[in-house]
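Query form — protein VOC family protein

QUESTION: What is the three-dimensional structure of this chain?
INPUT:
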Amino acid sequence: MPQPFSVQRIDHIVFRVRDLTRSIEFYRTVLGCDVVRQREHLGLVHLRAGASMIDLVSVDGKLGSRGGAAPAKEARNVDHLCLRIEPFHEPDLVAHLAKHGLAPFGSAETNFGAEGDGLSLYFPDPDGNVIELKGPSAGVVASGP
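ANSWER: The structure tokens for VOC family protein are given below.
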């Protein structure tokens, strides 16, 4: 079976931060990123970074607390890497992962990314880093054959 998708670009990266307000200010003033969505119930802020997104999660929020201690020399800072792929056909993706001895953490679910809401699957790399494969968002026309 050939590769069931091709990577289009990095959709977003998620950083765990100790002080969400300070980090938002840094990314806004130093890098010129704009806040496009805040989800207080998750401790999550989405910032536009060109065609991609930088997401910030508070280490004491619902999502950030899953990563353990606050970012430091011996603590995980990056939550996951999201790769925008095409096409997104869940059965083919699950079969491809299984062929490599991997399984997604659960069924595909809709998540927000650089293009808006779209389906994603999450799975670990060999070191336990989380990879998200994200398909086209609703209303975005897929490119390719």
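ADDITIONAL NOTE: Residues 6-137 form a domain with the 2,3-Dihydroxybiphenyl 1,2-Dioxygenase; domain 1 fold (CATH 3.10.180.10).
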